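Researcher: Next entry: LuxR C-terminal-related transcriptional regulator (Streptomyces longisporus).
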Amino acid sequence: MVVDDHRLLAEALASALKLRGHRVLAAAAPAAGAAELVITRAPEVCLLGTATPAEPGIFDPVVKIKRERPQVAVLVLGPVPSPRGIAAAFAAGASGYVRHDERIEGVERAIMKARAGEAAVAPQLLQGAFSELLNPAAQPDDEGQRLLQMLTPREVEVLVRVADGEDTRLIAAGMGIAPSTARTHVQRVLMKLGVGSRLEAAALAARTGLLDRAGPVNSGPE
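Model: Predicted structure:
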């Protein structure tokens, strides 16, 4: 089962896993409702995506899942670096932590390890986390804030809608603009973020926490 606050990411990962022969019971959003869904469906592995792993209480669903369905292995997909998030995930009972931008092969390896009862976390990920904990930066670089400052308010709204899975037609309707204008906005967003597709833009925004900073989208004419 794949659960993420951003439906586009959940469905894309679910599709990729299905193509590689895995049976996916559900791809759902938001992650806040993951516990009840997992407890009901009882998958072997739950992939739980989060953009804010260091936020207090973010892994409460993992605690509930492990209490009700201890046989379910929970793999957290989150941003890096986030040493507190990694520690909190394992403390809650997660079987592993995988980078949001990991290749599908890496996600698949983590799934196999989790199913076998092993801790699924890349050695370099732990090394990076420990390094940051031992040598914290005085003023850590906030990539999400930096990216947010590169976009206009209208482009931020477009990015949020892209991450929610809206196509050009829906973006145009929701913002009260022409489809050609919506398409132009999307291309500008991709160019500014330095990515080649909408899926990559959504993944980057989720990994850096940009979407959480953006706030709710507005609607209305140009």
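Model: Note for the record: The first strand starts at residue 2 and ends at 3.
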